Fold this sequence. Notes:
By secondary structure, the protein is α+β, with helices and mostly antiparallel strands. The protein has a domain at 64-130. Helix content is 21%, strand content 39%. It has helices at 2-31, 143-148; strands at residues 33-39, 45-46, 50-54, 61-63, 79-87, 93-99, 110-120, 125-130, 135-137, 153-159, 165-172. A five-stranded antiparallel beta sheet has the order 4-8-7-5-6, with no helix packed on it. The protein is globular. The mean pLDDT is 81.
Amino acid sequence: MNKKRGWIIVVILQVLFLLFIAGSYYSIDYFGKEIKIKTAPVDPREILYGDYVTLRFEISTVSLAKWVGDASLLERGDRSVYVVLSENKEGYYVVKNVYPNKPDVSDEQIILKGRAERIWGETSDQLQIDYGIERYYVQENTGTELEQQAGDMDAFVSVSPWGSHKITSLKPR
């Protein structure tokens, strides 16, 4: 009887774990704050997943002057960073500062976690930041339509209080 009870507990724990994973994704919509950032999309196609739009955000390339911390940490290659965003006059969120550790911020600011790589340029040093939302899947046969509107688009991103984020929509400017 104890073996049967043990199996039931294992199955219940697995189901609860799967429900937690699904719930955490959808809870971003409920608890998250929606922000708007500028994009410049390109449209490839993937055989297994269908159409998607590869996005490049204006907040993805940041001047090294916005780095708060020991710059030698960036010389070790790819690094986790915390990007503090604040809203500008036009309603877009822009980079205020980049930190190696999670900072305390005001209620008006948003933190996005990303991976940064230092880029040395001819004019100045910069950081290239990957937020993990650079690929946005769309309905089949709609990627080409987005590509034709690719001049300028706005990405609306929902950011939860615990740091998870996802693109909720893309709209032409």
